[in-house]
Amino acid sequence: MKNHKIIMTGGGSAGHVTPNLALVPKLKMLGYEIEYIGTKDGIERKIIEGENIKYYPISSGKLRRYFDMKNFTDPLKVIKGLFEAKKIMKIEKPDIVFSKGGFVSVPVVLAAYLCKIPVIAHECDITPGLANKLAAPYCTKVCVTFPEALNEIKNGKGVVTGNPIRRELFLGSKIKAKEICGFKNEKPILLIIGGSLGSKVINEAIRSKLEKLILKYNIIHICGENNLDKTLQNKNGYVQFEYVKDELPHLLAAADLVVSRAGANAIFELLALRKPNLLIPLSAKASRGDQILNARSFEKRGYSMVLQDEELTPECLQMKIDELYNDSEKYIAIMNDSNAENSIDLIVNLIEKYRKR
């Protein structure tokens, strides 16, 4: 039986890579040979090569919605990347391409289209990022995580699949987490996640109310690179990390409630794990507003409590955390009615359906 080959793409942030990795075990189980096209020095290269997946670097310019002098030169990089990607397609002859977005994906999707190779793309936010907007006309199908996103996808190409969740996140141990954190009592565990870079405003709000919060909760604080507070290193009931990788499944398993930014990958992981959560989306001043829409959708469906960035004060944050804890069973019950775990199967079924025969 012929093994099928898939080329994956996506880059610019870890959020454009981890959903790809979530699909890898199922694709390998079905006998797919997996290769990856990304940028020469983006975060995706280190992650993918660390998984022993064959990696092809190409040139790519950043796609911007604002004026920058590089807007005059970066299109030339995209064109160069298109020719590089097309050469890879001609040599490797994949049966299908899966794109997670990010600026590197545009030349890859165009190259696949020109080589008559089917493309399945995935958009995690309600409103597509610029890369997926440009690439969508050349895709066979576009998977979306939110039902509202179907309005943004033309020609009936949109399919609601949810967000693929890495299987290892379901394998965490509460006992292991308590060993990692050194917690000795049975107080409920509050996990704070500020995104990959951390959040200054969330960090400050949590720490300003720390004395009151640790009376009721054990606190795990993932605060971002260079955001550790050394004066709190030995604080009983409080442990802080700049960044976690292998420990994350254990910390999530132990968490009774979570305070998080509202990136699509993070919130769908919380939904799949049934973790009562308070979302504090990035403000429109600091982003294109996608996290606000993500949080609004989860709040509307009853999966999350939401506190807007502009309304964040230490007092309000403490009040919301206590409210979330008191209502946690209500949120878990609603999340139990979702089908978040089926995303991998739904996406892989599309790959199987549309790949070249």
UniProtKB/TrEMBL annotation:
- Which Pfam families does the entry mention? Glyco_tran_28_C, Glyco_transf_28
| Listed EC numbers | 2.4.1.227
Catalysed reaction(s) here are: di-trans,octa-cis-undecaprenyl diphospho-N-acetyl-alpha-D-muramoyl-L-alanyl-D-glutamyl-meso-2,6-diaminopimeloyl-D-alanyl-D-alanine + UDP-N-acetyl-alpha-D-glucosamine = di-trans,octa-cis-undecaprenyl diphospho-[N-acetyl-alpha-D-glucosaminyl-(1->4)]-N-acetyl-alpha-D-muramoyl-L-alanyl-D-glutamyl-meso-2,6-diaminopimeloyl-D-alanyl-D-alanine + UDP + H(+)
List the InterPro entries. Answer: GlcNAc_MurG, Glyco_trans_28_C, GlycoTrans_28_N
One Gene Ontology cellular component term attached to this UniProt record is: plasma membrane
Residues annotated as binding UDP-N-acetyl-alpha-D-glucosamine are 13-15, 166, 196, 291
Which parts of the sequence belong to the Glycosyl transferase family 28 C-terminal domain? 190-342
TM annotation in the entry: none
Q: What class of enzyme is it?
A: transferase
Where is this protein chiefly located?
membrane
Its pathway is:
Cell wall biogenesis; peptidoglycan biosynthesis
Keywords of this protein's UniProt record, alphabetized? Answer: Cell cycle, Cell division, Cell membrane, Cell shape, Cell wall biogenesis/degradation, Glycosyltransferase, Membrane, Peptidoglycan synthesis, Transferase
Domain Glycosyltransferase family 28 N-terminal span(s) in chain numbering: 6-143
Q: Where in the cell is it found?
A: Cell membrane
Q: What Gene Ontology molecular function terms does this protein carry?
A: UDP-N-acetyl-D-glucosamine:N-acetylmuramoyl-L-alanyl-D-glutamyl-meso-2,6-diaminopimelyl-D-alanyl-D-alanine-diphosphoundecaprenol 4-beta-N-acetylglucosaminlytransferase activity; undecaprenyldiphospho-muramoylpentapeptide beta-N-acetylglucosaminyltransferase activity
Q: How does it sit in the membrane?
A: Peripheral membrane protein
GO terms of biological process kind: carbohydrate metabolic process; cell division; cell wall organization; peptidoglycan biosynthetic process; regulation of cell shape
What family name appears in the similarity comment? Belongs to the glycosyltransferase 28 family. MurG subfamily.
Tell me the function of this protein. Answer: Cell wall formation. Catalyzes the transfer of a GlcNAc subunit on undecaprenyl-pyrophosphoryl-MurNAc-pentapeptide (lipid intermediate I) to form undecaprenyl-pyrophosphoryl-MurNAc-(pentapeptide)GlcNAc (lipid intermediate II).
In Swiss-Prot or TrEMBL terms, this protein is called: UDP-N-acetylglucosamine--N-acetylmuramyl-(pentapeptide) pyrophosphoryl-undecaprenol N-acetylglucosamine transferase
**Can you name the source organism?**
Clostridium tagluense
